[in-house]
Design brief:
Blueprint lengths: L2 E8 L5 E9 L2 E14 L6 E8 L2 H17 L10 H11 L6 H19 L9 H10 L12 H20 L26 H11 L5 H10 L3 H5 L6 E2 L4 E4 L2 E4 L6 E4 L7 E3 L3 H21 L20 H14 L8 H13 L4 H8 L4 H7 L1 H24 L1
Antiparallel strand pairs: 1-2, 2-3, 3-4, 5-6, 6-9, 7-8
């Protein structure tokens, strides 16, 4: 692309400013360029020249003033030559090393399938906030062969990009985070659907005698997550005190396909004191597992887990879930999810009079406020019942 310069002169704020014309496809395009001295090369002592370009003289002058002011104040940062795609790759490789396997996989998937295709070849310092906003707006709309993304998915993608860009800011590659001021779609919490008392009775009847009966029973009466139940180990159970220490979960690494024991969600270990029925179920599971171990001898794999197959291997979460779906269909609740067992425990505990703080700690929520938010419809009913009881009390004392 041949080009020529016109009218070189000093610009206000220092540096030099010139108008340039570029010919492309038979047309002429005008833009402005300002050159400034960013410092001196310590090896040669020569000036280090940098340039700023823009469509108008005013735009370039403003940029030049900002740069020269930063140089005078000692706050100048060298322009970053990385593209967004290159930075995302660096960030994923070097700054996500402490994430849990499943979280890491989700970040990598977001970068590979969404963020890099959208921004890969744009220079990191040239990514404007409005382009980021426009991208997230586009995800809410249907296109050729694609459905709009759910608000939660959009929030998750934005979270990954925001963290990557914030790391670039902290390293001095960017002055500000281009994803910081995005307007995202409002998320609405999905309605929880716990099993009611009658459904729980039918479910307990359906699982009677099933190989995974103990798993489902412990889950519905403790509120543990599926990974926490399948990762429960014998050294975390104190039969004398009647307590369970939840300190790990069993999770499948989607990259390797292997199961791994990792810390619970939010890295929050907790101690619970379940009902005596739960502890009796675990004692029976201990006797059952001891019989398996005796039967297979040296073929037994000593994982230390409470729930295993007859050879001591950990159970597949998918297998446990598929059996669960058949059992809830048998119980007349075909749409129930495994996680609904956890919700069922929480609702039953609230309705039985347990205080919210205890339920929050048993569930491993990060705050009691979150617990109240999730189960607000239950607490609203409880407040109504409380008002009805008080009204009955008022009527009783007023008539005596």
């Amino acid at each position: 692309m041949p080009h020529r310069s016109q009218g070189t002169r000093n610009a206000a704020g220092g540096g030099s400013l010139r108008k340039k014309i570029v010919k492309k496809d038979g047309k002429e395009y005008l833009y402005w360029e300002a050159r400034y001295t960013a410092g001196y090369d310590p090896r040669t002592g020569k000036q280090v020249q940098r340039s700023i370009t823009g469509k108008t003289q005013k735009e370039v002058v403003q940029k030049l003033r900002q740069v020269t002011a930063e140089i005078d104040q000692g706050a100048y940062q060298e322009p970053c030559k990385l593209t967004v795609g290159q930075w995302l790759d660096i960030w994923a490789q070097d700054y996500l090393t402490n994430l849990k396997p499943r979280t890491l996989n989700s970040y990598q998937s977001a970068i590979r399938n969404h963020l890099k295709p959208a921004f890969e070849n744009i220079k990191l310092e040239d990514l404007p906030p409005h382009m980021v906003q426009r991208y997230f707006n586009s995800l809410q709309q249907a296109g050729k062969g694609k459905k709009p993304l759910a608000p939660k998915s959009i929030h998750n993608l934005h979270g990954v990009l925001h963290k990557a860009m914030q790391q670039a800011v902290e390293l001095g590659y960017l002055r500000r985070n281009p994803a910081a001021l995005c307007k995202l779609p409002r998320m609405t919490r999905a309605e929880i659907k716990p099993l009611d008392d009658e459904a729980i009775r039918r479910f307990l009847t359906a699982i009677k005698g099933h190989p995974f009966e103990a798993i489902y029973l412990v889950t519905i009466f403790t509120g543990m997550r599926q990974g926490e139940v399948l990762g429960l180990s014998w050294d975390s159970i104190d039969f004398e005190k009647g307590t369970i220490y939840i300190r790990q979960q069993l999770q499948r690494n989607r990259s390797t396909g292997q199961y791994e024991l990792i810390t619970p969600k939010h890295d929050k270990c907790r101690l619970i004191t379940p009902a005596s029925t739960v502890m009796a179920t675990l004692r029976e599971q201990s006797r059952r597992q001891a019989a398996w171990r005796l039967a297979v001898g040296e073929a037994w794999e000593n994982t230390g887990l409470v729930f295993t197959d007859p050879l001591g291997h950990n159970l597949s979460s998918q297998t446990v879930y598929l059996h669960f779906k058949k059992l809830v269909e048998k119980a007349g609740c075909p749409k129930a999810r495994f996680h609904d067992l956890r919700h069922s425990y929480a609702v039953a505990a609230l309705q039985s009079g347990d205080d919210v703080k205890t339920i929050q700690e048993n569930l491993g929520h990060h705050s009691a406020a979150f617990t109240l938010d999730v189960y607000c419809h239950v607490t609203e009913k409880m407040r109504k019942d409380s008002a009805d009881r008080m009204e009955q009390f008022i009527q009783d004392v007023s008539s005596s």
